[in-house]
Every structure is written in structure tokens, then in C-alpha cells.
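Sequence in, structure out. Go.
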Amino acid sequence: MKIALVHDYIKEFGGAERVLMALHEIFPDAPIYTAFVTPGSTAARAFAGARLIPSWANWLIRYKNLHSSLRFLVPLIWESFDFSKYDLVILSSSGYLTKPVRIPKHVRVICYCHTPPRFLYGYPGMDYRKYWYAQVYKVIISHFLRLYDWFGAQRVDAFLANSHEVARRIKKFYRKDAVVIYPPVDLQDVVLRGKTTSYESGYFLVAGRVASFKGVDLAIEATGKLGASLKVVGEYSGIFTEQKNIEKLAHKNVEFLGRVPDEQLAGLYKNATAFLALAKDEDFGITPVEAMAAGTPVVAYGSGGYLETVVEGKTGTFFSDYNVESLVEAIKRVEKMKIKKADCQKQAAKFSKEIFIKKMKELVYAGVTRS
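Output:
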């Protein structure tokens, strides 16, 4: 069976790229079609051994954040690829609307949906409200892209969702049912690598794309109020002013580490007092599962995919009001809890890479019928 993979773009390395990496491991001969590849980026380095096929717009949108401002080119980008020689196309779909790729009728299409595009359906994302021209542009283009996204979704033979939260969104916005396959977390890798690296304990940890909609600013303010140490792992995402705004909030106990090797991240997970998972309406959230795999409790905002991974009182705790005071109380609460490392790791095992690979192979090779 000839298989092709399709992914939004190759730039930052986050949860969606970890899923793509697992798909590439399952189907190593499948080329990866993508809107663009940013040379030297963390994702480009991670997929250096893969066969990447960028679109004609690669040269135009791969730098800065032009891919966002030139999003009206999306229809021309995805419909320019020719998939007629394949039997199956697997889409890794999030914010860059891969679903409307032009697929011949004889080719089956499976969409692993990280989420319907957040910016199209009212979910928190990059905040452009202070730029009036950006707001006007967004209103105009979003109407047409929603229609395009809808029609693209109707071409998909089978939807896979990364959480029940996202499955509900797929049903709501596309009127399609979805099979839930949780993203792959390499539990053994986290545990083994964490043993080889030691850090002084007594800090809180945030990891992922560094942006205000991921709650990094909230973590900085809360730990500042407590006089606690905070380590921030990940790349800045979005417009350049976002980085400046976040760094202005930083207190003396905040350390920005950027993207770190997996071995170092495992050690950071292991020795953290707690991991802070603070995004609003998170699609799934791989990082809190990785933290639990290292035996570390999680403080999470009580919404989205976090509700499917963190167990209140057993592997961490939730806070319900999205403000500094509520987060501070949750941090104080988790420090008093007697959370067992074994319970955290047992919960994390439900989201292992092995389970992901097994379920994906079953679906692909058994054949998925049209929904």
C-alpha cells in the first residue's frame, strides 16, 4: 500500500510534531507533504532524515510568521499537490487546514485531527486584538476559510481525534464521528533519560510552545507571588511582541531554557515540584502526561484535554478560575498532597507510544470505512 503523510508545516517542534514523528516511524517510506519547511528550525532538524515535500509557497511563507498573515493562500497550497499515485493519505491536521487537499476518489483519506483550527472556531490562540487591521483581516478571511474547512472535512473518509474533547469539536463543527486515539508519549524514554540527569529540586516547570495563550504569563505571575522558582522550556510561538511581553513579566526566579534535548527535559520533569499545565481548552496536552511518566504531579487548568489525563488528588490537582489567585491556591494545595510516583506513572501508561502505534496499525491495515 502506497501511503503519504500530510502535516501543516515544519517549523516549531511541539505535540503535533511528536505525533508526526510516530507516524513517520510506523510508515518510514511515506513522504511528508507540508506547506513549508523552515530551514534550521527544531522541527526541520528533527525530520532531517525524512522525505519532506514542501509546497510551491515554501519560499514565500517559511520565514517570520508570513504563513499566518498569508493564510488566504491555503486553498492554493493544499490543492496543488498530486496524490493520485497513493492508496492512502494520512493527514496530521491542526491550524493550517490540511483537510481540503485534493484527493482522487480511489484514494482513502484518514485525518488525525489535533483540533479543528482554533482561530476559526473561537478557541484561545494568539491574541491580535490590539492590532485593528489584523482583526479586520481575520474577520474577513475567517468566514471563507471556515467554509473551506467544512468542505474539506467532508472529503475525509475517517476522522481520528487526539482526545474526546477534540472528538466533540469534530462532531460539532464537521458533523462527523471520530475514533479517539490518544497521542503517543514515549514513557520509557522519559523514565530512563530522567534517571541519567539530575537537577536540584524546588522549582515548578512549564514546557511547550511559549505563548500567553499557553498560560506562561500566568505561571510567571503565580510563582512570583509565591517567591518560587520557575523553569520555562520551549520555543516562542507567534508574533515577536509576544516574547517581549512575556519576558517583561519575568521575576528573578524565572529561567527561560528554550528548547532542550529530551534527556535534559526528562531530568527537568523528574525533579520539578510540580508541572504547570495552563492552556485554556487544551486539545490534549502531551507535556503533563510526560511529567506524570517521570512521577511528577501536575497542576492543570480544569478544561479541555487535561480533564482526560490528570486525576484530581491522585496525580495532581485542577484550578477552576483562570486567574493568578486560583493558580496560587492550587500550587499550595498540590504541595500538601501525598501524591505517589507510582500512581502518576500508572496513569501516564494509558497514553503510551506503544498503544498509539498498535491502534494506528490496526486502523490502517484493517481498513477504515467511510464515516
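Check: The chain has a mean pLDDT of 87. The CA atoms of residues 83 and 103 lie 6 Å apart.
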